[in-house]
């Protein structure tokens, strides 16, 4: 698997064509998808699981759709954290992850950030 930084558009190019079952990244086994996210977005397993569970609990039950949202959220967070954060992993602070998830969903619904 290519370890270069890959944009969200490249992740979901097959999804956009209506072929999510052909997406190289979205159909990885769970551990490989997490390892991809860890390498590309510097997210630890606990944060990854919390994000995944939050999307599931907020109505995104289909795994392919949830992974698209997860990648979109990680892109969203990376854009703002890239300039500020030189840590090994993305950090949110107490309550910050849920706040960022809510902000992401609000922006994705307002066409500022489209998934």
Attribute tags:
LAGLIDADG homing endonuclease, mainly alpha, single chain
- Beta-strand portion reads under 5%
Q: What is the first-to-last residue Cα distance?
A: 24 Å
Enumerate how many helices there are, as a single number. Answer: 6
The count of DSSP E runs of length 2 or more, i.e. the number of strands, is 0
Main β-sheet description: none
Provide structural commentary.
The protein is mainly alpha-helical and 115 residues long. The chain has one domain. Helix content is 57%, strand content 0%. The protein has 6 helices and no strands. Helix 4 crosses helix 5. The N terminus is likely disordered.
Quick recap:
The chain has 115 residues and is an all-alpha fold. It has six helices and no strands. It has one domain (8-109).
How does the SSE layout of this entry go?
Blueprint: H1 8-11, H2 13-16, H3 30-41, H4 45-57, H5 63-81, H6 96-109
